[in-house]
Amino acid sequence: MPASDQLVAQVGASAGGTPVPTSAPKVLSADALAGKAVFEGNCAACHSVGSDKLLGPGLAGVRLRAPGEAWLQKWIRNSSAVIASGDVYAVKIFNDNGKIQMTSFASLTDLQIKQVLDYVDSQNVPVVLMVQ
Questions:
Q1: Helix, strand or coil for residue 114?
Q2: Quick one: pLDDT at residue 53?
Q3: Which of 21, 70, 74, 109 could make an S-S bridge to 9, C-beta 3.0–4.6 Å?
Q4: 99 and 90 in contact (C-beta within 8 Å)?
Q5: Where is the Cytochrome c domain (predicted)?
């Protein structure tokens, strides 16, 4: 049985008999739900939760791309300082995004950053297909 935070869809059939997934509502954990509010208030103007680039990069898979959770916390709180430190990944992100400086979010707590990342992850979880 899938965990409560996994997406589940039923398999339907197209006109040709090929199985196709049907949509299912996403179930958010309490942390992801809290993260959605923080994301919408602070991040959504520049970032998508998916892979689409807005002003900044899409955040799908950001935990997999970044050098770690501690690095993400430093970056989100003050990307200028991380870039100025000569961090190779930070300089690459900065250059790859037109040298546009990310807003610093020094007031966000570790928990709020984790919640935002949980929300982003929840929006990019692959659908688990259940065949009846």
A1: helix
A2: 95
A3: 21
A4: no
A5: 30-124
Could you give the 3-state DSSP secondary structure of residue 121?
helix
Measured CA to CA, the distance from residue 102 to residue 96 in angstroms comes to 13
- Name the residue among 49, 40, 46 with its Cα closest to residue 98: 46
- Are 38 and 116 within 8 A, CB to CB? yes
3-state secondary structure of 41: helix
Nearest to 43 by CA among 56, 52, 25: 56
Task: List, for the chain, all residue ranges whose pLDDT scores fall below the cut of 50.
Answer: 1-14, 22
Whole-prediction pTM = 0.75
The values of phi and psi at residue 6, to 5°, are: -90, 150
**Is 60 in contact with 120 (CB distance < 8 Å)?**
yes
Residues in the chain: 132
Question: What tokens were used for 21?
Answer: 């997934």
